[in-house]
Design goal:
By secondary structure, the chain is an alpha+beta fold. It has one domain (6-119). Helix content is 23%, strand content 23%. It is built from three helices and seven strands; from the N terminus they run ββββαβαββα. Strand 3 (30-35) and strand 4 form a beta hairpin. The termini are far apart. 22% of the residues are buried. One zinc ion (ZN) is lined by residues 80, 82-83, 85, 103, 105, 107.
Length: 120
């Protein structure tokens, strides 16, 4: 399986996940963090954000962490079926409706399942 997630707390961002598998397409100066508060990821400048990160596995809400793990594990393809961008290289979020990864183009399992229904 993929490398494990690191849980941090940040005074402004709250609880964040550092996912080693979601750092594609970034320069060495950047890092992508998934914020449990908004269930979405953003790209930050490592030099600015990392000094305020405190490693704290106990800070994560276990339920949200499971949603994240499940969403990462459940995707059938490592890239968006709509825009073909790799999920490891976009600031994806997790859809509160279907609990799956939502690409920056807005595609999640809600959209693809309705497309499949129409196509059937
Ligand atoms: Zn997409
Ligand atoms: Zn959805």
């Amino acid at each position: 399986m993929s490398a494990d997630l690191l849980i941090y707390t940040h005074p402004k961002l709250g609880v964040v996940i550092y996912d080693p598998a979601a750092q594609m397409g970034l320069t060495r100066e950047q890092m992508r963090l998934f914020k449990l508060g908004t269930m979405g990821s953003s790209t930050f400048l490592r030099a600015i954000v990392s000094k305020d990160l405190t490693e704290d596995p106990s800070a994560a809400n276990a339920e949200q962490l499971e949603v994240y793990r499940a969403a990462r594990a459940s995707r059938r393809k490592p890239y968006c079926e709509h825009c073909r961008r790799h999920y490891g290289s976009v600031d994806f979020s997790i859809c509160p409706e279907c609990n799956s990864i939502r690409c920056t183009c807005g595609t999640c399992s809600c959209a693809s399942s309705s497309r499949r229904r129409k196509a059937a």
